[in-house]
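The record is passed on directly below:
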Amino acid sequence: MPRHATLARALRRRAFRAFTLVELLVVIAIIGVLVSLLLPAVQAAREAARRMNCQSNQKNFALAVINYENAKKQLPAAMGEGVLAGRNKTEFLPYQGPQLSWHIQVLPYMELQSLYSQFKIDGTTSIFNQSDQTRPEESQPAVMLCPSDSAFGRFYSDPDFTSGLGGVRKVAKGNYVAYAGPEHMNSAHVFPGTINTVGNELRQVSDGTSQTIMITEVRTRDVPEDQRGAWALAWPGSSCIALDLHSGPLGTSWTASGRPDVPYIPSTKQQDLDYSNPPNSFGGGVYSADKLRKCPDSAGADIERMSCDSANESWGSAAPRSLHPGGVNSAHVDGSVHWLSNDVNVTLLGAMICINDGVLPTE
């Protein structure tokens, strides 16, 4: 048989075995469908890993607080050297004094002694007058960050409020905050959360360490003038939050009565709960948007479900938030970490934040 005939037959056999264009398109379509089916599962697996990482970070913070208490015989304060004024020295002023957060106090118990040693903690030096060479407030240790958020590389800076040694300072953002109290920041000394205006003794957590929420999550925005998440600052929304759930009828609230001896009774009045559920909510607390020193780009904040108001006052409050679907992580005083669902009962949440209201969770 001529050589060219053999070659032609071989080419015809090879052509017969090849995919047609239709077959190729069908294969591509099948692969596309499989990828589209697998992608949500992959994303869910990634989010599950991020959430576990976030839980681990909160666990580290909770254990650091416990170790701090073991060494100091008291829990860290919301401010290293807090400022109490007003009604019988019971009003917390978060925008006065050194303004160093509780995070700084527990750094040595998180294997971050070298970072802690860079801060000047003397009761008078503010967070904006720390070393101009090392600038420790600009540090972003990985333990401060929840991987579901995008806080890495974000800083709080505002020429109206952060000017200090060496010019306008920046404070790095993170994702973990403590509950100062169930109502407002300035009433946290009266209606106390675990980490409030002054260092509580552990025995003061009379509702039980396993029943009381201590640490939760916040989200950050890529807006320098937005203070939320600035971990070294003892400000509302930065390192501490408050629920804004008033005690009983509004008329018996400490902030309304001026009395430092009013017991905290979580409100159950429906008209007081217009903002429904705080975790990941549109509002900042039960009543309103996060109260910040400045609320830049309020329309953008609304779109991100992180609404805010400009309120350069001492009665600030802010909401726990995360990008985890369905809720936020929360660490209790005993060091355990739990999932706090978006549909948590608000009255129950207020009771779980206050350390001595006498109300134990029933659900």
